[in-house]
Design brief:
Elements: H1 2-33, H2 36-56, H3 67-70, H4 80-101, H5 103-107, H6 116-119, H7 124-143, H8 148-170, H9 176-200, H10 215-250, H11 252-266, H12 270-288, H13 292-319, H14 321-326, H15 336-351, H16 355-360, H17 365-390, H18 392-418, H19 425-443, H20 451-472, H21 477-493
Length: about 500
Amino acid sequence: MGIIQQQTLKGTFYSYLGIVIGFVTLSILQPRALTTEQVGVTKLLLSFSLLFAQFATLGFNGTARYFPYFRDKEKQHHGYLFLFCLISGIGMLIFTIICYTFKDQIIGSKSHAETLFDKYYWCLIPLTFFTLYFNVFELYARVLYNAVSGRVLREFTKRLFILVAVLIIYFKLIDFNTFIIIWLFANIIPTFIILWILIRDKHFFFKPDFKFIDKELKSKLISISFFFILAGSASILVDNIDTYIVNFKLGLSDTGIYTIAAYFATTISLPSRSLYGISAIVITDAWKENDITSIKSIYKKSCITQIITSLFIFIIIWANIDNIFHLLPPKYEAGKYVIFFIGLGNLIDSAAGVNNIIISSSKYFKFDFYSYLALIVIIIISNLIFIPLYGITGTAIATGVSLLIFNLLRFLFLLVMYKMQPFTIASIYTIIVGTAIYFLSVWIIPKNSNFIIDLLFRSSFITILYGICVYYFNLSDDISYLIKGYINKIKGSI
């Protein structure tokens, strides 16, 4: 447990540092350094590389749960890394053939043939290759109890390199062609670093041991791999499908606007990431002991904690929406309601608590996959309905509606199968308090001509009043305990 706590704290610190760097890069510098089309092409290259890298593993990443069968350092873990790299290499070869054969379909319609995406399309191959092997080495490090290195490289180091690339073009020291090369290397370098870490720690074993894999183990590996080809890809597809659809239907410029607007909205779900990582360990242990009472308790506590934190961020963003667009070039104002509807969808998703972890770690884990498939279908259908009516805002509405239905399905599943649901009277009080504070911040506080002063004053008003209400009404024992701790520290320092 000491290792887990230490790595969780270290990983969380670098994750939040990475969030700050990502915010500065994506929200402030990138919209001013790049055109909307250029923002769009970098987002598309990243989104497609993540999806293709997942497919290229051929589901072998799912075999990590069987690594204990291979674990034996003296015998070089029976060639597990070699096997993982070999299968991923075969998957990469298949992807390269698909990438070449279906280029027009991946780019979009023929009317998009002359876009920047067409020009830089072949960057997908090296980007996918190094993303794939970063994922392979990161997962291998994780099963060897080094969960923090990959997380730091992915969420902090890579973002730092990308920030440097964006700063260089921001100061007009290079053109976009050179930027793409530097940006590509910024995404590639972490793969070499994690490989070096494995070699340094004497964990890089590349000797095959096919004789070790008997018929029973082979059957298990093949079975779980087939399932994870679809299951792993489904979650990646859900995270990126809106970007693909906007590009196919509306083009690169709208993709760029949508990307920046969606980034602001996704900050609402950031508090849940750390909670998921910590809760997963406890919930998995609880399932092993069939401790339903503990799982129900975590479900309820995670729900109210995430409602409080995510609603707070949503209120801060929407109360300052006009101030936010002062930070961006005028073109991006088209994304105003993208922020609202995706933000609302993420708020709903966060408010549902840790339903995904409870389901995915239970004996009904396959329902997790089926619910993702249902979500993909709902997203596609709702986009076909809303995009012709509302453009990029239509995609945001489709995402919000889809997340509502998706979480309703999971809520009903847990209610029926385990008689557990996460909501309490405190959930309702929190929504009432949050709504009231939002309207007070909009109606009472006059607009200041200096948007930075307005943003700081309005945000401070919301933060203080929201914190007082959460503490006074004791909406969450955990959060009230934290607030009380800060109050005692302040009193002690006076």
